[in-house]
From TrEMBL:
Signal peptide stretch: none
Keywords noted in UniProt: Membrane, Transmembrane, Transmembrane helix
The keyword Transmembrane appears for this protein: yes
Gene Ontology CC terms, in alphabetical order: membrane
Transmembrane domains' residue ranges: 12-30, 42-71
Name this protein carries in UniProt: Phospholipid/glycerol acyltransferase domain-containing protein
Source species, domain of life: Eukaryota
Positions of the Phospholipid/glycerol acyltransferase domain: 111-234
Gene Ontology MF annotations: acyltransferase activity
InterPro entries (UniProt xref): Plipid/glycerol_acylTrfase
SUPFAM superfamilies xref list: Glycerol-3-phosphate (1)-acyltransferase
Pfam families found in the cross-reference section: Acyltransferase
Amino acid sequence: MQAQNGSCEIYPSLTYLTCLLEILLDWLGMDNLEDYLSYLDYLMWVFTPLIIVFILPFIIVLFLYLSILFLHVYKRKNELKEAYSNSIWDGARKTLATLWDGHATIWHGYEIHGLEKVPENGPALIVYYHGALPVDYYYFVAKVILLKGRTCHSVGDHFLFKIPGFKPLLEVFSVIHGPQEECVKALQDGHLLAISPGGVREALFSDETYILMWGNRTGFAQVAIDAQVPIIPMFTQNVREGFRSLGCIRLLRWLYEKYKIPLVPVYGGFPVKFRTYLGDPIQYDPSITANELAEKTKCALQSLIDRHQRIPGNIFRALLERFHRRDKDD
């Protein structure tokens, strides 16, 4: 073979991989490895200061936000001490609620409107729209713990109970997976209970148009009727702009519908403005059927979406709302 053909036979003393590297360097127009290293050193010398210049401010901002989070926790230290003196799990719940509330305030400028509609005592069923990741619901639970002194029981999908290491968290925050009898019992015991009728399907396959994907589900309505409790609809503005899913991929939708495998990727974490709105309670009416109550609840939740969410949702607009209040009602 000829040298100009890039054959490794012209490098008899080199290993095959080293030979390939030499050919690559020749192809790049570099005579030897020293030229390549010198070029790389030049690039590092030029770009490293630029990288440092852009990274250091973010590190400072991170420390500032961690400082704010510390102050948020410190502000509630007396409440935390009191909680731990009563029960170790009460203290743990309140500590985690404080951290989540701090995250909500810092990252999303979180607001909640209508929390007074949640009773100070006694049961109620809270029905909410399920975002791609229900972080808004976590923030709501934290607010209820901190401001109402109550733990909101939650209905979670079965796959949550199969995630390794999740059991203590689910138990401490009273997450159940049903059935209806267990939900009714929680309400009859005087607890708050929250459920998203759309569940994982709504989380993964709804989009920035905020379509409710409840199908024919009426079990939650039957639970409210059996427990004779009011239903409180709940919706968080921009929840789909915080996190989005790739539910438009047909294969992933087919896998979920066929095998109930939630493999749809979720992306985001954008620091958009979150505002949670609680609608007027739908009071218990013994003359109404489960189908009628489910439809009434769906209409109430759709009304919250229509009133407070600009459709289709827009990430950039939701980011701007962190600095400029522009609710759809305004």
